Q: What sequence folds into this?
């Protein structure tokens, strides 16, 4: 049986994330050094003003950065977030949130990434709502409890 490509491994890792399933997030694109993830607006993903919760937007951006970094690693490579900074530029209002991550500088151990989170409006326009700078570390796969 042929080994999976790193992009196929990224897709498989995304599919295993229970939290992303809970959010209803969808992997839109994965390419070497890039990843895009979307999440449709739902009332259960809001904060008290009825906007996308900051935690949802942060999760999308973090995952977009992480999977962009993972896409450049050798076979079996995984990543973990080391640090990130997210700046909110405007409220998370729209029918969907789309996080597009890219690797700015890949490395054997650390990769530096960015992600922009756009809010898709009902008319199809996208408005930049947040931007993240993140550092990801290459990590060996670990055994996970049961």
A:
């Amino acid at each position: 049986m042929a080994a999976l490509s790193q992009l196929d491994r990224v897709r498989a890792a995304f599919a295993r994330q229970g939290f992303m399933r809970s959010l209803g997030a969808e992997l839109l694109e994965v390419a070497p050094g890039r990843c895009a993830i979307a999440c449709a607006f739902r009332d259960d993903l809001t904060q008290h003003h009825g906007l996308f919760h900051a935690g949802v937007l942060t999760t999308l951006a973090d995952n977009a950065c992480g999977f962009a970094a993972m896409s450049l690693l050798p076979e079996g490579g995984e990543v973990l977030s080391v640090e990130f900074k997210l700046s909110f530029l405007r409220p998370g209002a729209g029918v969907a949130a789309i996080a597009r991550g890219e690797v700015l500088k890949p490395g054997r151990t650390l990769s530096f990434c960015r992600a922009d989170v756009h809010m898709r409006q009902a008319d199809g326009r996208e408005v930049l709502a947040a931007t993240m700078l993140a550092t990801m570390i290459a990590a060996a796969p670990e055994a996970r409890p049961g």
Notes: The chain is about 25% helix and 40% strand. The mean pLDDT is 94. The first strand starts at residue 26 and ends at 31. The first helix runs from residue 6 to 15.
